[in-house]
Amino acid sequence: MTIAFDDGTDPVSTDLSMQLGARGELLKQDEAGGMGLAVRADAFFVWMESEKASNSAATSANASRLRLVLEGGCSFDVGGSTVVRPAL
């Protein structure tokens, strides 16, 4: 990584490393009697490191997220070929 400065100071170069991992899943139950249920899950992890350079310190940062979502819905026949399916 190279950091450039607006004041004319010489640019600073340092090694930068990053690792990233992500995964997502969807589990869905077939509708029974017009009702359906789904579970969504995902995870995200990031690790970053930068070596010490002139006018900067060695830096490391980590970030992560884990989500679990439960989704449900029901179908209503409102006549003809029209079906309304609200979901929560």
Write structural notes for this entry.
- The chain has 88 residues and is an all-beta fold.
- 0% of the residues lie in helices and 65% in strands.
- The radius of gyration is 25 Å and the shape is elongated.
Would you spell out the secondary-structure blueprint of this structure?
Layout: E1 2-3, E2 12-13, E3 16-32, E4 35-50, E5 59-74, E6 76-77, E7 83-84
Antiparallel strand pairs: 1-2, 3-4, 4-5, 6-7
Report a brief summary of the structure:
The protein contains no helices and 7 strands.
Keywords:
88 residues; mainly beta; 3-stranded antiparallel beta sheet; 7 strands; two-stranded antiparallel ribbon; single chain
Main sheet: strand order: 3-4-5
Query: Oligomeric status of the shown chains?
Result: single chain
Number of helices, where a helix is a run of at least 4 consecutive DSSP H or I residues: 0
- The overall pLDDT, averaged over residues, is 81
Tell me the Rg in angstroms.
Answer: 25 Å
Roughly what fraction of the amino acids lie in strands?
over 45%
Parts with pLDDT < 50 across at least 5 consecutive residues: none
Tell me the series of helices and strands, N- to C-terminal: EEEEEEE
Query: Helix amount, in percent?
Result: under 10%
- Tally of DSSP β-strands: 7
Distance between the termini: 45 Å
Largest beta-sheet characterization = 3 strands, antiparallel
- Tell the overall outline: elongated
Q: Which structural class do the helices and strands define?
A: mainly beta
